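Sequence of Thiol reductant ABC exporter subunit CydC (Kurthia sibirica).
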Amino acid sequence: MNELIDTVLKEKRAVLIAIILGSIGGITSVALFSLSGFIISKAALLPPLYIILFLAACLKLFGFLKSLSRYGERLISHEATLTILNDLRMTFYDQLEKITPRVFTKYRSGDLLSRVVGDVETLQNFFLRVFYPPIVTAIVFICTMFFTWFFSAWIAAIILLSLLVTTVVLPALILMHQRKKTVKILLERSALSTEMTEFLFGFRDLVISDQLSNKTNDLLHLAKRYAQQQQKRSTEIIRHQAYNTLLAMLTVVAVLTIGAYFVTTQQLDGLYLAMLVLLTLTVFELAIPMALVPSYMEESKQAMERLQSVMIDHDEKIDAVGTTIKKQPFSVSFHTVNFRYDEAHQMTLKNINFVIPQGTRATIVGASGSGKSTIFQLLLDYYSPSSGVVCVAGQPLESVCSEDLWSKTTVMLQQNHFFYGTVRDNLVLAKDDASDAELLSVLQEMELDFELDEIIYEKGENLSGGEKQRLALARVWLKNTPVWLLDEPFSALDPQTERRIYERMMQKTMGKTVVMISHRLMALQRMDQVLVMDNGELVEVGHYDDLMQKKGYLYDLKQLENNRLPS
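Predicted 3D structure, token representation.
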């Protein structure tokens, strides 16, 4: 909550103006109704006309000030709220950027969407309904108490006692009752958002597998549960407001009863009784919304904690973002690295040791599930090792700024995203100053017969698997940094196309550091190193010819591949 308060206080000027205008609006509202009661009582005594005209003029003045101040208060407070929400979003996005994409390994996309959109939107209630309304209410009540004390200390004491119960005791009881329910609502909203996102992503597969109806029913069940939680919360809010309203009305009755008694005992001038009753009625209109403060405060607190939890889980990485890769040979090395995924029972990687010097090309091979992609994910800083150290350019990867790492590397993953737009739009992501001639040249090298203005659908839905992979390779060609990290770059290509593009890649990467994962054992003799993985262990490291002469694990894999190839 301290971070949230600090964010609000950045808008000191707007906060101060909103409090001042809100206080003026509340005081003039009380003055307006109090003066109305006084005029009614005064008129009954048939005073001179100029007195009635003067009081009526004051009444109009208070009415004008009330409307003007309330309008200004709403304008300033809502503008400040939008600015505060914008600051919160930018702060969250800035921090999220530093830990992307590793954050996606822990949080599902729908859950992140719920936090970024829903939880941030929830925080708008903090300033509008939690932060400054109690301050305004306190100022108005203090002024009211001071004014009422001149007419009757007993009535002022009754209003004060009722105020303490309405704004302190009752909200405290509500807060104790509300805490667990607020958490449950946010979790239900997160679950619904997560499942809805997954439903949209997997809609086509659900239709094909004839599971659309079952998944829809599950989604409707979640929506119903969330709606029920929201309904319960709304009912409780109405109930709490009703309690405050009841207490306010009882206070009005008490003021009227005691005031009437004081009039009969001549302790109070009857001229002021109506004024005090209307004053009490009006001032408690400000106190009634105080019943909502605990709900909104707890909701804001939980929403802020959910946002911060994403950052807290990755604090170490955020603290290290200022470290850049030093100017020295960009070698890649693993030193006694062990790794286990969260909630997994077995180690995925066991005691991995290797060094890939700068300017050399290495291929990581092995059976499916042997740990090849996990090495790649550790190298890209998606995960941190359970033990051991991953180094780039002689520096521990955990101390290196991820953005600096990615700026110096050309990366191709198994799954590559394509944005809705033109071929040009999707290529310039790798090199924003590339000319059309350069883009067309790369497309030609990738054997893609595309026009630069040709439209690509979201996620490349109008492309074949091979076209997607070659378009992703075109990005690699364009970025062309000294370090290339490639995960199964040719898996979707036919053998002939693969050989031609592989040959071009070997020419393109002369003198560069290349780490490539491949399940195919083609042209390994062209690589400087072959790293052979089996069941999470690095079982062989060396040049292809040397490993084949040993007739070890790589030799067996090659024989199996040859036997599977058509004769």
